[in-house]
UniProtKB/TrEMBL annotation:
This is Lysis protein. The chain crosses the membrane at residues 7-24. It comes from Orbus sasakiae. The lineage of its organism: Bacteria, Pseudomonadati, Pseudomonadota, Gammaproteobacteria, Orbales. Keywords: Membrane, Transmembrane, Transmembrane helix. InterPro entries: I-spanin (IPR004929).
Length: 146
């Protein structure tokens, strides 16, 4: 074999070796980047699971207090209908003087509009109480639980 052929073979072998070294270095770098990406993905996955738990807590709280609100409003409507249909009476607490007669005791009753306004106000109070209780529960169970 001639020296020229040997030199060409050595150059080809060195070129292939350097190309292999570059390829292997790229593969190693890719694996390092993949490891970093997997670590980030794992952290994001944990954050997502925590977020899902918080969302589930919020949904549970919302369901609970929505059901309680619906039940309370239905009870209020039931009471209102009973009063309107003369099944029950809206009892008023009033103080009578010693000079009051028995006829005066029977006359103490709300007008139809006042009765309706009373139940509308009760409905508003029920709604606001339920919202406040729900928010307090949310603060305790979600905001302060972290």
């Amino acid at each position: 074999m001639s020296n020229r052929f040997k030199l060409i073979c050595i150059v080809i072998v060195l070129s292939i070796a350097s190309l292999m070294w570059v390829i292997l270095n790229d593969i190693r770098q890719t694996y390092l980047e993949l490891g970093a990406i997997q670590h980030e993905l794992s952290a994001l996955s944990q954050q997502f699971e925590q977020y899902q738990k918080v969302v589930q807590k919020v949904n549970d709280i919302d369901s609970k207090f929505t059901q309680e609100l619906t039940d309370a409003k239905a009870e209020n409507l039931h009471r209102y209908n009973n009063v309107i249909n003369h099944v029950a009476r809206l009892q008023l607490n009033s103080s009578k003087t010693a000079t009051a007669t028995l006829d005066d005791a029977n006359a103490c009753e709300l007008t139809g509009e006042a009765r309706q306004n009373y139940y509308l106000l009760r409905n508003d109070i029920i709604t606001k109480d339920n919202v406040i209780l729900g928010l307090q529960h949310y603060i305790r169970e979600v905001c302060l639980a972290k």
